[in-house]
Structure formats: C-alpha cells, structure tokens
Amino acid sequence: MTTYVIAIIVVALVFDFINGFHDAANSIATVVSTRVLSPRSAVAWAALFNFIAFALFEPTVARNIAKGVEPAFITPNVILGGLSGAILWNLLTWWWGLPSSSSHALMGGFAGAAVLSAGRVSVLDAKIYGMTAAFIVVSPLVGSVIGFALMSAIRWLGRSWTPGKVDVGFRRLQLLSAAAYSLGHGGNDAQKTIGIITALLVSAGVQPGGAKLKPMLWVVLMCHAAMGLGTLSGGWRIVRTMGMKITKLKPVGGFAAESAGAATLFGATALGVPVSTTHTITGAIVGVGAVGGRLSAVRWGVAGRIVWAWIFTIPASALLSALAYAAARAVTGAP
C-alpha cells in the first residue's frame, strides 16, 4: 500500500469515529433520557455492543457499499472526496444538533465525488442507490409501525400493572433493548466504512474484487473499534434532541423504541441494505410517542427540522464531496 492509500484509510477511520459520536445519540438517547443509565455508563454500554457486533453479522452491507460505484471509476481521490464531504456534513449537523444520517452522508459523498470524476450518473449502481433512497422512507416508517405496535401491546398486556411495577421492570429490560439497538447500529453502520475501505483496497490492487468480495479481518476490527471509540466520546447535542425534544419518554417507551429500532436494523442488515440508524430510531420514538392517540405528545416542529435534515443530507454531502474531490485532483494531478 502507498502512503496515500494509508492516509485515506486513516481518514475513513476518522469518519467512522465521527459516525460513532454523531450517532451515539441513536444508541443512548432513550436510555439516558429515561435515566436508566448515566451518560457515561450509557456510552460505555453502547460502545461495547457497537464493537462486538462484528462477530454477529455477515458483511452484506459492506459488500454492497463496496460495489456502489463501478470499479473502473473508484480511485483514491474519489474515495477521499466522498469521505471528506461526509465528514464535513456530519460535523455541521452535529454542531446544529440535528440527527442526520451518517449513512446517507457517506452514500451521497461517494456519489458526488464519483459523478464529478466520471462525468455521468451511470457509474453508480442503480440497485444499491435505489434501495438506499427507498429506505429513507421505509426505515422510519417500519420503525414507527413496530414502535407503535409494541407500545400498544405493552399497554394492553400491562393494563393491570401498577406504575411502580412497570417502571422497575422496564428499567431492567431497557438495558437489554439498548444493547440490542447498539448491536444493530454497529452491525449496519460500521459496515459502511468497511465497504469504503474495501473498495479502496480493491482499486489499489491490495485485495481481489469480484462477486465473492470479502472484507479483510483487520479492516473489520479497526472499523468497529473506531466506531466504538467514537460512541464513547458521546454526542450530547444530538442526545438532547433525540431523547428529550421529540417526545417525553419513560422506561417502557424507551424499551419499545429501542426494540423497534433494533428489529428494523437487524432485518435491514440481513438483507444487505445500508439504512440510516438515525431515521430508524427517530421513527420508532415518534411511533411510541403517538400511542393512545397522543399525537400532541410528539413535538412535530422538532420532527420537521429532523426531516429537513434528512432531505438535504444526500445532495449536501454530494456537493461537499464533489468540491473535496476537485481539490484533491488539483493537488495530486490524478483522477
């Protein structure tokens, strides 16, 4: 590997670290806002399960990400541009306290740099980008439906329980649901960076490509470790938005939202679909908050700001990445 390729791998790991602290809110917002765990304990719990997810999931998402652009048009500068745009967009939305999608920032960034490099949209894999675009709508809807159904079932089954019994029981159960959600988060999100690094290694001739493309173990371990360390650093601006501003949650609601989000992520990862963990948990929280006809319990103004961030993520990160790619090409003189 050349020094330039190694440097880009470092940038990819920086993106993964930022992904971890940007999306830490997805894993810990509900368990912190319900006061089941302290912030420090919550990030440690989430980071642990972010890391060990590598042992539980097949790298289907990583393979799809690596194949998202025609191999002939994948160059180090394209990958550097895509990563740079995604990092910039993540930092901007973190500063604004908006839970945007790191996944879609990466996909948008990869697309923006590749299209500027090759000059046409046909370099993008229509199936993979089509699935990603569709799940902008599908994942929050599925999370919302499962969250609503699960919360409704719990309310019906526990209608004779005392408030104290409900609170104590679901405080314990929320530890399990938070662990399951963090597994889903690590299993889906870390694979996106694994896929980018794998694409880079294939383009550099370090490993073979083809239909049986398999990420190297050291890439898998480094990406999961970087995400876990990022989660340990927290993302408190977004935690406040996710856990406290969308709707008021109790332990039973936190359990239902995390369980719904985990179920959605497990299914998407099994199918190899790179979904947004942010969209998924936001939909689940909204679904839980709307149970019992309490639509007024959802702060729709905050939810609206989040949706606008979702809409702008792919085009904004694509634009930033195109600019970053143009700068890298000007400096290196390479495509």
UniProtKB/TrEMBL annotation:
GO cellular component: membrane
Compartment(s) of residence: Membrane
InterPro entries on file: Phos_transporter
Chief subcellular location: membrane
Tree of life domain: Bacteria
Gene Ontology MF term list: phosphate transmembrane transporter activity
Annotated GO biological process: phosphate ion transmembrane transport
Sorted UniProt keywords: Membrane, Transmembrane, Transmembrane helix, Transport
One Pfam family of this chain: PHO4
Membrane topology per record: Multi-pass membrane protein
Transmembrane domains' residue ranges: 43-61, 73-96, 102-121, 133-157, 216-239, 251-271, 277-295, 307-328
Keyword ATP-binding annotated: no
Entry protein name: Inorganic phosphate transporter
Organism, as annotated: Sorangium cellulosum
